[in-house]
Automatic annotation (TrEMBL):
It comes from Cyclocybe aegerita (Black poplar mushroom). It comes from the Eukaryota. Keywords: Signal. This is Coenzyme Q-binding protein COQ10 START domain-containing protein. Coiled coil: none annotated. Residues 1-18 form the signal peptide. Gene3D superfamilies: 3.30.530.20. The keyword Ribonucleoprotein does not apply. InterPro entries: Polyketide_cyclase/dehydratase (IPR019587), START-like_dom_sf (IPR023393). The keyword Cell division does not apply.
């Protein structure tokens, strides 16, 4: 009987994959390279949204972004970690991501730790869209804004999408050094978010 259960699971996944829901991301821009991932999560949109914006909990589940701290304009961590537009973020990512699953005690790989300094450019709690842009380097040198968006699907399911387009001269360096690891990171975060919210 096992084969038929597997077959049904396979066909279910295949059919789900065949119909990509409409995107809630802004129109894609062009750049040197693009990293993107999406997944359908079997949980209501508000549950996924709250998990995505609960940055202090990232260490407990996120194999890619190990730490994401909301700070003031002069990079001082804020007591209230509820994110708002035009606040800064200090992000520590593992590129490539750590093997899954991770929890708060999982050790970082110091050789793969990258820190970035970002500005929250969009935090739309109605449209379920969030974005942050790196501001360590000026935009003409490295243009990189990570978008994440959710859409409610029938049956209390949620479509999660993330995309980041890299442009500017330093984008070539990031492409050569990190494109594969970043793609693996986006994929890992999407899978881990699904696992976290569905558990
Ligand atoms: C941060 O993003 C907000 C919203 O887009 C913008 O108004 C602000 O100028 C940005 N700040 C910096 C330092 O880039």
């Amino acid at each position: 009987m096992l084969w038929s259960t597997s077959l049904i699971a396979f066909l279910g996944a295949y059919c789900a994959g065949a119909q990509t829901p409409p995107s809630n991301l802004p129109p894609a821009t062009t750049g040197i390279f693009t990293v993107q991932a999406s997944v359908i999560i079997n949980a209501p949109i508000e549950k996924v949204w709250n998990t995505l914006l609960d940055f202090p909990s990232y260490a407990q589940w996120n194999p890619f972004v190990r730490s994401q701290v909301v700070t003031s304009a002069i990079w001082v961590p804020l007591e209230d970690q509820t994110p708002h537009e035009n606040q800064r973020l200090i992000i520590q990512a593992q590129i490539p991501p750590l093997p899954m699953p991770v929890d708060a005690n999982t050790h970082a790989n110091p050789l793969h730790m990258q820190t970035s300094f970002e500005n929250i450019t969009t935090l739309d709690r109605v449209q379920h869209r969030a974005a942050w842009r790196q501001i360590f380097l000026p935009k003409p040198v490295l243009d990189a804004e990570r978008w994440q968006a959710l859409s409610a699907l029938p049956g209390k399911r949620t479509y999660y999408e993330s995309r980041e387009v890299f442009d500017g001269p330093v984008g070539h360096v990031v492409d050569a050094l990190f494109a594969e690891g970043l793609q693996a990171g986006f994929d890992a975060q999407a899978a881990a978010l699904k696992a976290r919210v569905e558990q």
